[in-house]
Design goal:
With about 260 residues, the protein is of the alpha/beta class. The protein has two domains: about 170 residues, Glycogen Phosphorylase B (Rossmann fold), CATH 3.40.50.2000; about 70 residues, 3-Layer(aba) Sandwich (Rossmann fold). It is built from nine helices and ten strands. Strand 6, helix 7 and strand 7 form a beta-alpha-beta unit. The protein is globular. The chain starts with a strand and ends with a helix. The model has no long low-confidence stretch (mean pLDDT about 90).
Length: about 260
Amino acid sequence: MRIALDVTPLSRPRTGIGNYFRGMLAGLAEAAEGGHELIAFGPTGPWGRTRIRRSLEGLPVELRLPLLPRAHWWRTAWSRLGRPPVETFLGPLDVFHFSDWMYPPQRGGLRATTIHDLVPLRFPDWVEPATVRMHGPKYVHAARTCDRVFVNSAFTRGEVVELLGVPEERVVVAYPGIDPRFRPDGERADLGGPYVLAVGTLEPRKNLPALAEAFALVRQRHPELTLAVAGLEGWEDRPLEAEGIRLLGYVSDDELARLYRGAA
């Protein structure tokens, strides 16, 4: 079989969804055992192409990464225009899995996507307006065209059935796995004392200010503790800086594994 996956989310610094995509490809490659052709497709700019190559280094997949200035604009236009089919660039396919970032048409084969959550529909105020504009049309398109919709929890499966009207038999739960680097043995991070760890982009839906308030109560009894927050700087406007809170910013996977091991 020829299986193509849209890997454009890997063109940005890799966080939760990017790690899920990378793990999906790694799992497919392992399950295929060389018996199927896997194609990583990602029209993107120069920096995005470099990030995708680094993320997929070592995996037995064919890279199709067309260099595309103003890539986001072109991907959006391609999705909305509905032509040409993706086979124009990749040849005949048995399966095409598209991401949140684009949903180009295809001529034949099974069509699939992954929906991680429906927060942009349930709570649009919790995400950026651009996220609502990007995800809304994708959800409608996926419900109409996909043979299979993968989700990462039973809860999201229920949301997809209820809110998007996708028949339950077309929705498949594929739980996230754990990268082998996140094992209990190994080097531990040293932040100069005991700490608790929070991981996630600084955005309203993570409700990190509530965590900061709770931590302030804990610290009254355990003043030696630090709250370490690892994640990209997002659009959380509420202040997080407070006594005992340490913002680490974006960290590599290896450093994140050390932080997990070192947490109190």
